[in-house]
Design brief:
Elements lengths: L22 E2 L24 H5 L12 E5 L11 E4 L11 E3 L4 E8 L1 H4 L3 E8 L2 E8 L1 E2 L6 E2 L4 E4 L14 E7 L7 E2 L2 E2 L2 E2 L4 E5 L12 H5 L3 E9 L3 E8 L4 E8 L7 E9 L5 E7 L2 E8 L5 E7 L2 E4 L7
Length: 318
């Protein structure tokens, strides 16, 4: 059951991009050498900033933590891969929490040391060909096939690799688009800002997690999987879900702050050529579900939490 306050009239939703992550000069040490699958360096891969921005990735660490990333400390790295550390000693980060950079479905959760030296690896499929990799984990807390929310813990920082390959604890992080390795490796974007390659310190705005008792899947119902999401500042996240069984889209806005208090929250879905469907009001935990089928058409979706709003273009056509 959804808890509501007094419902207000609908309002216009304005296009807003998330604010930039906090950046500082590179402060530090990265891991020891860590060979990865053999391939041609991706230095020439273009970065489509608008496309990457649309995925609304956040730093893969809990809200408020500052981590230093480095893409050049290992000669075996492909372009745009990042190693993250934050401690002052080699083992300081061992066991620290790693969270999902965006909502999606776990495609891989396995130890792959003998395959590619990633050790304990979690790969999350975010839909639209986008995926993220979290390697060398000490522990994995999700299984293949599981649906995860942005900010949900998926494992802990570790130094697992292949037998005999000694590395210091760190998180190896990648963003990929498509399947043609290594040209599919993309520049990482956190909270709307491209990572400051080759090194930068970033403060996490990944402020989701389990404090809200509702997930987008619970709001939309059985059979729906997250295919896209957009951060609404620190106030919430709006999710686009799809049910392959009945071809229905669903939008839900999940609050992160002011939980239990009735605050302005909204979710909407617009099928191209049709009227927009909106659920807006003063809600305690979420807005939605808003559902519609769109066979052969594109959809526009978005929402509001607090003062932050998001409007997508027409996309996810099919």
């Amino acid at each position: 059951m959804r808890l509501k306050g007094v419902v207000t009239a609908g309002f216009a939703l304005l296009l807003s991009l998330a604010g930039g992550a906090v950046m500082a000069p590179n402060a530090g040490a990265a891991a020891l050498a860590e060979p990865v699958p053999v391939g041609t360096a991706a230095d020439s891969v273009p970065s489509d900033g608008a496309t990457i921005l649309a995925t609304n990735f956040q730093l893969p660490f809990p809200c408020g933590q500052a981590w230093t990333g480095n893409s050049g400390a290992s000669s075996a790295h492909q372009s745009w891969e990042i190693d993250f550390n934050r401690g002052s000693t080699a083992n300081a980060d061992l066991g620290d929490t790693v969270v999902a950079a965006a909502a999606g479905t776990v495609e891989i959760s396995a130890h792959q040391g003998s395959v590619n030296r990633y050790g304990n690896l979690v790969k999350i499929d975010h839909g639209g060909g986008w995926s993220t990799y979290y390697a060398h984990l000490n522990t994995r807390s999700v299984s293949a096939g599981a649906t995860v929310s942005q900010g949900q813990q998926i494992g802990t920082v570790g130094n697992t690799s292949s037998p005999g390959n000694a590395i210091s604890p760190h998180l190896h992080y990648e963003v990929r688009l498509g399947t043609s390795y290594p040209s599919n490796i993309q520049k990482a974007v956190f909270n709307g800002s491209t990572f400051g390659y080759p090194g930068a310190t970033v403060t996490s705005a990944n402020c989701g997690g389990s404090s809200n008792p509702y997930t987008p899947q619970e709001v939309c119902g059985g059979g729906y999987d997250v295919i896209d999401s957009a951060a609404l500042g620190s106030a919430g996240t709006v999710y686009l879900l799809y049910n392959t069984a009945n071809g229905s889209n669903c939008v839900a806005t999940i609050k992160r702050t002011s939980l239990g208090a009735a605050t302005a929250t909204a979710a909407y879905l617009e099928v191209q050529g049709q009227s927009r469907i909106t659920d807006s009001g003063n809600f305690a935990y979420y807005a939605g579900p808003v559902r519609a089928t769109a066979p052969g058409k594109c959809v526009k979706w978005g929402g509001k939490a607090g003062a932050s709003v998001y409007n997508s273009p027409f996309e996810h056509c099919g």
